[in-house]
Amino acid sequence: MVGLKPTEVPPPLGVKILSAGMAGCIADLVTFPLDTAKVRLQIQGEKAAAGVAKDIRYRGVFGTIGTMVRTEGPRSLYNGLVAGLHRQMAFASIRIGFYDSVKLLYTGGRDNPGVGIRILAGCTTGAMAVSIAQPTDVVKVRFQAQLNLQGVDRRYSGALKAYGKIFREEGLRGLWKGTLPNITRNALVNCTELVTYDIIKEAILNHKLLSDNLPCHFVSAFGAGFCTTVIASPVDVVKTRYMNSPPGQYTSAINCAWTMLTKEGPTAFYKGFVPSFLRLGSWNIVMFVSFEQLKRAMMVSRNKAETSDGTPKRKEPV
Known about the structure:
By secondary structure, the chain is mostly helical. The protein has helices spanning about 15-45, 45-50, 60-70, 80-95, 100-105, 115-145, 160-175, 180-205, 215-245, 255-265, 275-310. The protein is built from eleven helices and no strands. The N and C termini lie close together (about 10 Å).
């Protein structure tokens, strides 16, 4: 199980859900500028984006960050942070918090599931999370793509207002725009991220290369971030382009992908790969370490509270 020593009693589902959401928020706070740089690189070349910033070119992750700070100010790196935190509390809580429980559901309660069951569980919780949290992702991406330049009209002035404006102008379909490519992307991301982390960590512990502590979590999370970036980057670029596009620019996510391929070539699908890797690698490290520490801290507090109340400890369902 993710972030759990074999000898530990599994924490209850509520602890996993809360600690996953909090860990996702912590990771977003640390890595959000990298995510914003990734979005800017991914939409570079779009007609809509090029029209308002034809003299601005982004080159590389740190070059993009430098250009944004110079032209828009440092606050631009955190455009969409509020929506990003909304997203993590809804999204990470489901896709990570429910992962172990769904694995047990598919195995009928048996431990040590195979790779196939882990992949299925990761795809399931990833799809569940997107189905619920998609509006937060749409608002986050649009804020990150929004330029803070003098003389350029801003599409949105606040996260809550953005939800309302998108609903009024585009309806529910606008809030759930890009759901299909996002489900595809996050099914890939979730199963690759969680399954790779599980497998790498188990291999490290089984071969006694490291003990179950911070270095082990760091290596496992870094490996999971790299594998996830390689597999999910093409879908991520299409998702970002499609969700950020004005009504009518693309007829579907598939049309968006075809337009990119014919007009910009196959390398367009790996635009922003370096910031994606830097972001996913660092995000995984911060998230998994935070997730494990938050879970353990919550369990310690819970056990202390039960002991002080004189309530016997009980094994909770996972």
